[in-house]
Amino acid sequence: MTKQIILAEEMGYCWGVRRALDIITKAGDVERPVATIGDVIHNPQIVERLKSQGIDTADSVSEAAEHGFQRVAITAHGAGPARSEDAKSRGLELIDTTCPLVTKVQRLGQKLVRQGYYLVVYGDGYHPEVRGIIAWSDTSRAVAAKHIEDLPWNAPRGQGEEGAIEPPRKVAVVSQTTKNVAEFLKFVGELAPMVARDGGELRICNTICEPTSLRQNALKKLARESDAILAIGGKKSSNTARLAEVGRSYGLPSYHIERAEDIDPAWLDGVDNIGVTAGASTPDDVIADVVRHLQTFGYAAPDTEMLDYDLNVLPNF
Ligand code: SF4
To answer: Where residue 259 sits, what CATH number does that domain have?
Structure first.
């Protein structure tokens, strides 16, 4: 039997990251370097490559200004309004690479707050995207939560028990764009009985982006066809770690690797079909390297073309 490499149908850079990299690369200039606030992408190879093109990283606008940068950039995850105001007040040029699908969630959050909803952002409270959505909502009536226990309430509405902190009458939930659809549904399923009692209203907005959903479905398909899975991405890339985790949840040995050399040949013992996927910030050439490396272990080249996206085609949302 021929040993096969099976590529996930959706993997690697998402449309928003490709767009952000395209904007930032065009703006790159070694004479007038630009500092992205936070990593433009969680991939050490790309970070190095960008540095050589005059694109560096700073933790904040003030740090960039202190280091003499005259141009700063917002990453694809977006940021609250304070960042652009800060850049403006310091006379710095601002390059905004926020993914339009993130901007859409920021605007939706604002709208829901204006309509009187308490805003719950399902996601990681430390993540720049979630922090940006909350900052744009410009209210104290907004919270980030990944579990029901993270919410500021401890009882369903209308219980009236002593010590009970009940949700307000109107609650709306949006999601961080990269979250898992099944887990988001589980979260809102737990929230609904807390809010939708005693005249309460819960508005659920599934803002997980389409590229993320497509990737999750592609991984499911890949798991059905493979004996083991390699998830390629920077060690700091949580979405790559998550891909490997999901692979394991399907009962398959799954490994998070940063580059081809990380593959332990022992992992491939008895593996006829090796599935390959990659995180949203993994460059195509790193994926291609892994594929070439696997071929040296006797795997046939994958019959799928390496995926690519046309930056001029906006996804339909
Ligand atoms: S994961 Fe989705 S929202 Fe985030 S940058 Fe990519 S396309 Fe945009």
So the answer is: 3.40.1010.20
